[in-house]
Amino acid sequence: MPFTWWEIAGFVSGLACVLLAARRAVWNFPVGIVNSTLFLVLFARTGIYANAALQIVFLALGVAGWVDWARARNRAPANGGAHDGEVPVRPAPRLAWWVGIPAALAVAVGLVLLLRSTGASTQPVWDAVTTASSLLAQVFLNRRWVGSWPVWVATDVALVGLYASVGLWLTAALYVVFTGIAVSGWVGWRQAARTRASARDPGGRFAAAEARA
């Protein structure tokens, strides 16, 4: 399948979005809104409808995340010393994992059943699984939780295979790059969480706990 302008534009905007997120820049959200719009059209044309529908959810989450990150950036000096427009980040609480993982599994199972019964996807299992894990990762990202990045790493690896299987080779290559950026973002956010914990707790009583994803 030859590259389309939708895929090329999605490649460029997606790369910019993830790079901005890894740098803790609030501008990742408006760029992500553009990216989701482009991918909505691209995925619908390719027949991976769960991932297409996911982009609609991402549009709503993008607006919500934009508002939350903008507020957090304005409060940054009081929240641990973020600077240069970066937002403060923090580890995901244990409850978020205990609730988030079963919820994502339930969404994935429900989507598999729906997509198989309707025939609405060319790859129902991986379409459903990556949709559910992407939702979990994005919710964690909106909350500025470090744990969003390991979820993104696993999701991006799976999406490389999904997009290659439907002939979206440029998008598959983009997600290879995304995987590397996600690893870098994970490392950077963990360090930022440690710095923030140290600033708030010079004695180190809570620093180790707060540095965990």
Oligomer: single chain
Overall mean pLDDT stands at 86
Distance between the termini: 39 Å
Helix fraction by DSSP (H/I, runs of at least 4): over 70%
Radius of gyration: 18 Å
Compute the number of helices: 8
Q: Indicate the low-confidence ranges by residue numbers.
A: 78-82
- SSE order in H/E notation? HHHHHHHH
Count of strand segments: 0
Q: How does the helix and strand content classify structurally?
A: mainly alpha
- Indicate the proportion of strand residues: under 5%
**Basic shape:** globular
Let me know the largest β-sheet. none
Q: In a few lines, what is going on in this structure?
A:
The protein has 213 residues and is mainly α.
Description:
The protein is 76% helix and 0% strand. It has 213 residues and is mainly α. Helix 1 (5-22) runs parallel beside helix 7 (169-200), helix 5 (124-142) packs antiparallel against helix 6 and helix 6 (148-165) runs antiparallel to helix 7. 44% of the residues are buried. Residues 78-82 have low confidence and may be disordered.
Write the layout of secondary structure elements.
Blueprint: H1 5-22, H2 28-46, H3 49-74, H4 94-118, H5 124-142, H6 148-165, H7 169-200, H8 207-210
Helix pairs in contact: 1-2, 1-7, 2-3, 3-5, 4-5, 5-6, 6-7
Main traits of this protein?
mainly alpha; 213 residues
